[in-house]
Amino acid sequence: MSSINNSFEYYQSSQGLLLMLNKNKKGNPLINQLLEKNELEYQRKMESFGFGTTKGNDKYKKVETAANNLEDALASLGKEDLYKAETGKEYDNSALIKNINNYVTAYNSTISELDNCGGSLKNSFSTEFVEAYKEKADALNKIGITLSADGKLSVDQDKLKAAKVDDIKSIFNTASAYYKSIMSSASSIDTIINKALAMKSGTYNANGIMLN
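Structure tokens predicted for Flagellar hook-associated protein 2 C-terminus (212 residues):
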């Protein structure tokens, strides 16, 4: 016999989280759906993407892992020490170059996993990543990073190695618009997938009651 749990408290808490998340991302249709639609409609949407099946869940977990790696790689580029010489030594940009290549690898992996998923998840976030690039296209091109037709980043290693540290820092410091946009998108992917996977074990009726 099914047990019935009132999900109102859970629903309220999730709305509060998503309202915070949505402050700078009002154009994202998946987040808008979370905010504007009830849990039943959201669950049905996620099920149409493949959540709730082993094959579908594995696919989305790979996107989540890629997005987490992207967050980590970008966070590493936000560290001030990368842009400073060690005391008493001449500046060596090798660690910075390595971190940028790690970031590009993580970025491209995220794009690949989104492509594998397809649908609204891919379309929504691929668009966000492209828009973030376009806003900093000149600055990124200047340091050797370009956007390919498939939505992935390419690096001209010679141009990157010759780039000024300040030019690189202007793109990847934690206060830059590019850094904030990419980090926000990667974090949103993680949040949306976690929420959907957490809901897979319950079924919501039209009154916001979860049946276990």
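Residues 1-24, 201-212 have pLDDT under 50 and may be disordered.
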